[in-house]
Amino acid sequence: MKFYIHFILFLILNLSLLAQEKKIVLDSNKQGIENVEIYLPDYDLIIYTDSKGEFSLPPNHDIYLIASKEGFKTISAVVKQETETKLTLEKLHVELDEIIVSTINHKLSSNQTLSISSKKINRINNTSSNFVQALNNISGIDNVSTGTGINKVVVRGLSGSRVVTYINGVRIENQQWGGDHGIGFTSLGFSKVEIMKGPSSIMFGADALGGVLYFVDEPFERNEKFKINHNSLFESTNLYFNNQLSTKWSSGNFKINAYAEYGKASDYKLPQGKYLYNSRFENKAIKVIVGFSKNRWLINAKYQLNDNYAGVPGHSHEAVPTIDDLTSNNTFRHKSRPAQFVTNQIANIENTFLLQNSKLKLDLSYTINQLREYEAWTVPEIDLDLSTNQWNFRWYKNIKDKINLTIGTQGSRQYNRNQPARTQILEDANLFDIGYYGLIDYESKLINLSVASRIDRRKIETIETPSFSKTYDGNSISLGLNKSIKNHTLRLNYSSGLRTPHLTELLADGVHHGTNRFERGNPDLKIEKGQQIDFNYEWANEHLGFIVNPFIHKIDNFINLSPTLETVDNYPVYEYQQFEFANLQGAEINLHYHPHFLHQLHFEQSYSFIEGTSNNDSALALIPSNKIYSEVSYSFKNAKIIKKIITSQSYHFSKEDVAFNEQPSKSYQLIDLFLEWKHKNRLSGNLGVRNILNTEYIPHLSSLKRFDVFNPGRSFYFKINVEI
Amino acid sequence: MKKVILASSFIFLMASCSDESECHECHIAYENANNIEIEYELGEYCESNLQDLEANGYELTEDQIIGNDTIPAGTYAPSDIHCEEHHDDDH
Q: How close does chain B come to A276, measured CA to CA in Å?
């Protein structure tokens, strides 16, 4: 009997599949468009249209999808299984900012009330071997660097504990408080990064005061054959080679993406020909994503391991080291000392339940970060293990078509433990976070509005005696408006955020070898509270577009690491202190021109201006210099191999308004040139040269600035991509 | 297709070879009255001997005269023992 029931159910299911009506994507001339990317966010799945522009959907009720193709305007729609659907894409010549569908809230950029920038990782990797450095080309984004191996992102002048990094729904905890602690993972398996500039505590919790980096995994693809992709790149300045291997496969309800990476760099070459000793690094990574869907339940299980080694350049026993003490005539790639070893493991499970008019998401994750800093070969100076359990529960409900409600709770339990080492900068401690939030969106053709609120509680307690235990409570709100009239779009957003003092700011009491200073915490520090007003105006016609985005961000109780006159064991002592408030203000401007007579030519320019001052009108430390980035690209329509040529210029202004004890920096410009090539469908790549003029330059946020160490000189770059 | 998979695997295997040396030249770093570092070479240390030296330090039994400086006999803490390489070392 059971067999018959199963047989009948099987038939019904297959009939429902057969009952699916035709879905097609057309251009404005009613011609089907081939190879349009149909992305289903709920399934995290990409489907491509066939040669007639047709596609089919998984068997389910109404499905939300996003259709996009380069050169066309991206659209989103809810499609019903049982009705015939025609989606029409309009031609588009000017993309002001990359047209995005945010993974954060699944809205098209044109409907956002938030300030979100997005970059496709593919596009970043086309012109750079270092994806963190490549983000510098986005207005308002910079990075703090120690050579080429250690980089971390700065968002509108803020970094470290003030910028939160997410990989999909998982918050990455990687001892981000340290200026010398890099991001800890590579671009392996990511499709894009979304950056929220300014306080973003509502969806991302306490600490997201300066902004959020949200890395999104590549979606699954409907492909019953194993699709294998191999990327190799080489960079001449540090003899860096990197290999990435990926495979994608799906069958029915089961999908899998798997990746592996290995990269290694030797000491990089300075413009004058010598090599910066110990600037070498190595990275290894694996990543596996498995997806399964059954009726209205979708589950993704993800695991990634990143194992990084980075030499720490700028090491010398001389009291006042010169450039000759830090450089050599040859380049080396073996592991040396001092060095950082960072291992990150991230395991998470994402559950989505598609209910009637609502959606439930439950994410669980476990992350482990191991940070070991060595000066000796066998005994670490610092050895810290940080493990974090997180949960994230969200419920989305559509009320009366135009109103969407989101409520959720987010929490984590974190354990910081020292392993045997020469020094201990942080005590063993536990941290407990819980937050509750609600968000209402109103969307109509005339106006989009959003209102959101959140409350947070954090408890920090140390294990050792005398014990430290403190609970911090706070709340955040966000109000946003977006209005479009013909070619004009206005966006106004007010958001508040908070950041509780980090353990290191409260309790540090020791030498931090990565920064060569003795750091002393202050257990009486209060919560930092930020408020930002962000105004965005966009105008675009068929050939020209621009964005003007001024902002002002006030942070009360701003925590600052200030130098003192004291020394301990010859290390200068720095203490955590608090300004009454700090102000960050600036503007980002983007321009895109595309002449009517030459559709293949594009000219883009972006300007980033920022100023940071404390309540006593003195300049804040580590505020990036202002910059202008310009790019001209030309696409070859009928060329056999060369597809595109891109040249870019970035001009960084000098930085004279600096904090006490901070060095000013000089202006510089960099010019790069790249070619994109493709041979048939399976072989493609890029080649180019960075810093063509071999300019000697030191970025304002380089930690090697105090030694007058330049960044890399002219470098040739080659990348090849093979699809099997 | 098989050739490409094999070539990819080969590149990965070649790239993953370890090259970390297990023996290192070590010295006592002694700071004289003028805050200038004077080095007393201890020779090459390997594996467990290196681990022991870096964990427990070194017992110098006699005064050592180097140029115009004297490195006094005594116990030198792990922080005074340096085995890391510098730019001018012979690699």
A: 9
